[in-house]
Model the fold of this input.
Amino acid sequence: MARYTGPACKLCRREGTKLFLKGDRCMSGKCAIDRRSTAPGQHGAANKKQKEYGMQLREKQKAKRYYGVLEKQFKNYFAEAARKEGMTGENLLKLIERRLDNVVYRMGMAESRKEARQLVLHEHFELNGKKVNIPSIIVSAGDVVAVRENFRGSAKCKSLAEGLQTKNAPKWLDVDKTNLSAKVVALPARDDVDFDFNEQLIVEHYSK
Done:
């Protein structure tokens, strides 16, 4: 399975913004953006004027890296979003929000989407009562995501459960903090996306 294995902080520096790829570290003084905000590489500090294509590319890369999706899969999501009624850019973001790894992260049972992806791959969650290990599953309204019984007694799960008590989930998820589960009560709307994307630039990039 293809995946990015390089430094996560390098991605944030390249996009010039916090992508929250390393959980609590991103909120601390150790964050790479706070310590060194220039892009990586020997020419990273150069003041380059960005052209229209560059702006579109950077917005697409930012969205990909924020959700932890590689190019081929992201392009497939765009194609699916384009087939749906409504605005393609909004459809794209709402579709990726429904990925299982993102749901696990948004319900508060992971410090980052990368960690959520790992927990799903290790079969620590179930969907509608059935064991799952595919982070890219798209959930639907009425689906229930829950921690599996064999993971609940682990130190990692107990640590995540403690942190869950102080976290707020989006309104499209009904989180049961006692039973460590979340029900998808509605499909996410555009204003439920918790990052400032200019999705029109992504649409323009793929429309060339």
